[in-house]
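[audit] Reproducing an earlier prediction to check determinism. Same input, same settings, fresh worker. If the C-alpha cells differ from the archived copy the diff job will pick it up downstream; this log only records the rerun itself.
[audit] input (331 residues):
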Amino acid sequence: MRSALRGRTFVVGLITALSVAACGGSDTGSAAAPAGEKGLEKTKIVIGALPIPDSAGIHIAKAKGFFQAEGLDVQINPLKSSADAVPALNGGSTDVILGNYFAMINVSAAKVGEYRFIADAFQAKPNVFDLVVPKDSPITDIKGLKGKKIAVPAKNSIGELASGNALRTAGLDREKDVEFIPTAFPEMWGAMTTGKADAAWLTEPFLTQVQQQYGAKVLTDTMTGAMADFPIAGWTVTKKFADANPKTVAAFQRAYAKAQQLAATDRKEIEKILPTYTKIPPAVISTITLGDFPTTLSAQRIQRVADLMLEYGYLKEKFDVTPMLVPMPQQ
C-alpha cells in the first residue's frame, strides 16, 4: 500500500470541492510578544483552511504557539469546500486562505481579483494523486480510459490538468477521448460503483481508504513527467491585505516557516496534528502517502503551474506569477 501522506475532503482547485472535518489546536509554548512592540498592523487574523494534510503546517504553528510568539491571535476556520475559500477572502470574513495554485492563477489571469501568495503549503510526490478504478473494472491501464468518464473535483481544475497530463503520456486527448465528471472527493467511490464515472482522480486519504476497504486498482500516478513534484497550494491573501499589513504578513510567515520546517522533516508531527482538525481514521493516517511541505516560497517553482496551464490551454497567454509572491522574511 503506501508508506507516507493530503487527506482530502480535499483540496484541488480553488473552485473545486472538498469536505468536512473539524478544526482545532490551541496555542501553547512560547509566550506572546506584545503586538505593540512588533508594530503589527493587525493582530487578530482569521485563516480559512481545508481539513486536509496540506493544512498541517498552519495547525502545527497554532498548536505550538508560534503565532502567539509573533503577537498574532489566530483563528482557524475549517472550510467545507475550496469553493468557499475565495468568497470568504473577497468578502472580508477571512484574511488568509489555503489557495490552490491552479485556481488562484486562473482567477488572477482572468482579472477576477488580485491575490498574493505568502507561504507555500504543499507539493506533490509520487502516488499522492492517482487515477483509480474499482477492483472488478475491466479497465486495466490508462489506455483503457478512452471513451470513459473520469471523476474529478471540478471542471477546469488541477484534477483535470493532472489527469490530462497522464492521458497524454498514453496517447489520449483529454478533450476528445474522455469526459470529466465534477464530483466531490467523498462521493467519487459511489460515482464509480453506480456507473456515473468509470475512474476517479483521487488523493489522500481517500486514495488509501478505497484501496484498503474496497480493493480499488491504481491505473497510474498522475504526478509524473511534467507534473513531477508539482506545486499544489499555498497560503493566500488579497493584494489589498498584503499592502495594508506588511508586518502582520511577515509575522505570519515567520511563525509558519517554523511549523512548516517541522512538517517537512518529521512525519510524526503531521500524524500527531491531523486528528485535531480532520476525521481521517488513525489507521489511515499511519499509512497514507504524504507529499512535500516546502519551506521556501519560490516563484520559479510556482511558475511551473502557470506554464503548464498555458501549454494545456487553460490560460490564453503567458502569466508571470512573480508579482503574486510576497517574499519570506529572514528568520
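[audit] rerun output stored. Observation attached for the diff report: The domain at 129-227 is CATH 3.40.190.10 (D-Maltodextrin-Binding Protein; domain 2).
[audit] end
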